[in-house]
Amino acid sequence: MDNRYEYVFKRLESTNMHQLPLKGTFNFYQIALFPINGVYEIRRSTFDGIGDIIKVKKMYTNKKNLKKIISLLKDKKYHTYATYNLNNIPLPSKSYFDTLTSELLNQPI
Fold it and tell me: What is the DSSP string of 39-69?
């Protein structure tokens, strides 16, 4: 049996390869793993549809609530840091937004 393939090469009509804006906002959490006086620091960054941070909020919680928050969040929606506070940790970059909104990376296994 002879398998022959035919390839057709086409020029793209548009050379603009930018990702289209997504609808809505997306939250990403940064969590300090070590407490100060029993209180853990959490920073929530809110992204718009194109990956720009539009709002940052710091929160503080106890260990019980921290475990509950982590259990409710999906893996790609937060990052933990081995630190006492998030003062020296930069805000998340656009790569975190890309991971957060990726259909391929957020599929269940």
Answer: BEEEEEEEE-TTS-EEEEEEEEE-HHHHHHH
Report the predicted TM-score, pTM, of the whole model to 2 decimal places.
0.74
Q: Is residue 21 part of a domain?
A: no
Task: List the chain pLDDT tens, one digit each, 109 residues.
Answer: 567 777 777 665 655 555 567 788 889 999 999 999 999 999 999 998 888 899 999 999 999 999 999 999 987 889 999 999 999 999 998 888 787 777 666 666 5
Position 19 in a domain:
no
Residue 7 lies in a domain: no
Residue 41 maps to a domain: yes
